[in-house]
Design a protein that fits this description.
Helices cover 26% and strands 25% of the residues of chain A. The first copy, chain A, has 325 residues and is an alpha+beta fold. Chain A has 2 domains: 7-16 and 140-311, Nucleoside Triphosphate Pyrophosphohydrolase; 22-137, no CATH class. In chain A, strands 7, 8, 9, 10, 11, 12 and 13 form a 7-stranded mixed beta sheet that branches. A 4-stranded mixed beta sheet of chain A has the order 2-1-4-3. A two-stranded antiparallel sheet of chain A has the order 5-6. In chain A, α5 (188-200) crosses α6 (204-210).
C-alpha cells in the first residue's frame, strides 16, 4: 500500500496566503502587506484587496475615489442616478482595465477579449470584471470541479485528466476530471455541464441528470509565479465541487485541446500521484475534499484530519453573500 | 413545496460564540471576554479557554500554575520526570474536579462517575478529562453523528429520531438518526458503531461494513442556558459526520431510553421541521451539512451558500492536531 500523501502540505501549497486578518492588518508599504480595500457603491464590505503597487500603476478614472488614509480604499462611486448600477460598475472596471491593456502594464493582461467573472457577494448583481483582473484586484475567483468515479470489482476508481503540454499554466500536470472558471453570467452547475461536454465529451444530458453538487472549498492564494510578477498579490478562491458516478461504458475523452488524456486510476495510483506532486495544486485540494467525503481520508488514518477539514473551508476576507451584513 | 429553511440562522444558533480571535482578545473582566488560556506541559498552544469566574471558583492544586499576567494562563506543570505524562495530567484534572464535585461548585457537576473526553490535539495522548468539565475549561468536545437515509421510489427519505421527553437537554426535540459523544479511549468510527446498536438497534456488523465517514463540522458554542448558569462560557465542538444508506428492511428502533421514536421523512418534512426549529440545534447543523453533501442545498437555491459552507467549518481556537505548530 502506498504511504499516506502529505495532505496538509499539499493544502498549504494552495492556501498559500498568510492566515492574517487582512481587514485589520495595518498598512505597511515596506512589507508585502500593503493592500487597499476595494469597495463597491453603497456597501462598506470589501470585495477585494488591491496591492499598493497595483493601485499606483493603474490609471483610475473619475468613477473611482482612491483614499490613502487608513483604511486605504479604492471606492467605486455611484454614478448611476437610480439607473443600472451593476452595468455602470462593470463599465468602470472595463475602462480602467482597457487602459491597462493599451499601456501594456501587466504581462498577463494582453486583451479584453476574454471571459468575465462576477464580483461575488455584490449587492448589484451582476457586476462583471475581466477574469484575468480578479487577481489584480484580489477579487474572489469562482471555479467548478467535477470528479468522475467508477465502482469496479476492484474498488473505486477515479478519472484523472492530464493537462496538455502546451498550456501556459501547469502544463502536463494532473487535473480534476472536469474543471472550469465560472463565468459571470452562469451558475456553477451550468459551468460544469458545459465543461463536461467540452473538455471530456461527457453528454450534457447525462451530467444534468446524474451530477451531484457536494459542497465547496475555499482558500486564499498568493499569486502564482507562473506569471513572472505579482507574487505579493492575493486571490480568494471558491471551488464548487461536484461528483458523478460513471457507468463503465461512459468514458471521458479529450475534446478540446486542453486535456491530453484521461486515466482511470485506483486510489493507490491517485495517492501516489499526490505524493509525487503531479497534480495541479488546487486539483490536489479538490481530491482531498473528495477523499474526505468518501471516507478515504478519516480521523482514524490522518492525524491532521481536523486541520485539513477546516483549512479546506477558509473564511474568505471578502463578502461572499449579497445579504450578509 | 415547503419554503427554504433559514439555514444561516439555524447555524448562528449553534455557532453562537462571537467570531473574535480569542487568543488576541485583551483580558477584560468587565465584559464577558475574560478568559485564561489552558496550557498543557511543554506546549505553548492553548487547549482550552477558562472563564475568569471558573478560574476563581476552582481550587487549583500545586499541579497547576495560575498566572494573572497577560496572557492569563492556567499552566499544567510537568511533574512526570519522564514517566507517563498523560496519566499525570489526567490525574491532576481529576483531582481538581473531584474537589469541585465535593464542594458542589457547579450544578451540572454532580459526580465523577461519567465518561471522559480526551483533550484534542494534546501532545501526550491520551490526556483525559471528565466530559461535563469540557465546557468548564473550554476544551474541545467531540461528537459523532450518523444520518441514515433510504432511496425510495418517491425520492430520498431520512431517518429522524425524536429525543425522549425525560432527557435533561433538548427533551422532545428531533435528533440525528444516531449520535453520541466520542469517549476518550475510542475513535469517532467506534463511537458511531456502538451508538448505532445502542440507540437505534442497527446491527454493528452492518454499520461497520456500510457506514461512510464524510467529514466533520466545527463550531464554537456559548454554553447552553439549559444548565442555568455559565452562559459566558465557550465550547469548541467537533462533530464527525457519517452517512449510511439503509435498505428498506433495516428499520431503526429505539433501544435505550434516550430515543422516543424514529420517523422516515422525505426532504420536505425534514425542511419543515427545520423551519419550525424542531431539531436540537446542533443536529440542524449536521442536517445542513448532509444537505450540502447530497446536492439538496446548493449555490443555485441558497444565496448564503458560501457563508454556510465556511461557517460549518470554523477554525477552532484550540489545538486540534498533536503535530501542528
Amino acid at each position: 500500500m502506498t504511504a499516506q500523501p502529505p495532505y496538509l502540505e499539499l493544502l498549504e501549497a494552495v492556501d498559500s496566503f498568510p492566515h492574517i486578518d487582512i481587514s485589520k492588518t495595518p498598512y505597511n508599504p515596506r512589507v508585502n502587506l500593503a493592500f487597499y480595500q476595494l469597495l463597491l457603491p453603497n456597501d462598506p464590505r470589501p470585495h477585494g484587496y488591491i496591492h499598493s503597487s497595483i493601485v499606483q500603476k493603474l490609471k483610475w478614472s473619475a468613477a473611482f475615489q482612491v483614499s490613502h488614509n487608513s483604511p486605504r480604499t479604492v471606492q467605486l462611486l455611484d454614478d448611476s442616478h437610480g439607473e443600472d448600477t451593476a452595468a455602470i460598475c462593470s463599465r468602470a472596471f472595463y475602462e480602467v482595465l482597457e487602459k491597462a491593456v493599451e499601456d501594456k502594464l501587466f504581462p498577463f493582461l494582453k486583451t479584453m477579449q476574454w471571459e468575465n467573472y462576477r464580483i461575488v457577494g455584490a449587492r448589484y448583481p451582476t457586476v462583471q470584471i475581466l477574469r484575468s483582473a480578479a487577481r489584480l484586484f484580489g477579487i474572489c475567483s469562482r471555479g467548478a470541479h467535477m470528479t468522475a468515479y467508477v465502482r469496479t470489482n476492484e474498488g473505486m476508481k477515479i478519472w484523472v485528466g492530464r493537462r496538455a503540454a502546451h498550456l501556459f499554466t501547469y502544463p502536463g500536470k494532473l487535473d480534476t476530471t472536469v474543471a472550469g472558471g465560472v463565468k459571470a453570467e452562469e451558475s456553477p452547475f451550468e459551468c460544469i455541464v458545459h465543461e463536461a461536454a467540452e473538455e471530456a465529451s461527457i453528454p450534457a444530458d447525462f451530467v444534468r441528470a446524474n451530477v451531484k453538487a457536494c459542497g465547496a472549498i475555499t482558500y486564499v492564494a498568493k499569486s502564482s509565479d507562473a506569471y513572472g510578477d505579482g507574487s505579493d498579490l492575493m486571490t480568494p478562491v471558491i471551488l464548487y465541487n461536484y461528483d458523478i458516478e460513471l457507468p463503465e461504458h461512459i468514458v471521458p475523452r479529450p475534446q478540446d485541446d486542453e486535456v491530453e488524456d484521461f486515466y482511470l486510476w485506483d486510489l493507490e495510483q491517485v495517492k501516489k500521484a499526490m505524493i509525487n506532486r503531479q497534480f495541479k495544486t488546487n486539483c490536489a485540494a479538490v481530491m482531498i475534499d473528495f477523499f474526505i467525503r468518501h471516507g478515504i481520508l478519516t480521523d482514524e488514518n490522518e492525524q491532521d484530519y481536523l486541520e485539513i477539514v477546516t483549512r479546506l473551508h477558509r473564511k474568505l476576507p471578502v463578502a461572499t453573500s449579497a445579504s450578509a451584513p
